[in-house]
Amino acid sequence: MDNFVAIDFETANFAQSSVCSVGIVIVKDGEIVDNYYSLIRPVPNYYNARCSEVNGLQFVRGH
Question: CA-to-CA distance for 61 and 38, rounded, in angstroms?
């Protein structure tokens, strides 16, 4: 498998709609040729402590 795209979603809580970040990596001929990462405002917009322990993301008030 030399050519593929890997996508990773992180969630803020246990709701499937609570995506708070996405990362994408494009691999061609076994080499990373492009990548993308973005934070997303989750819906519903609250962070569960267990999810934050796993992904390292948490809401910071005032930001």
Answer: 19
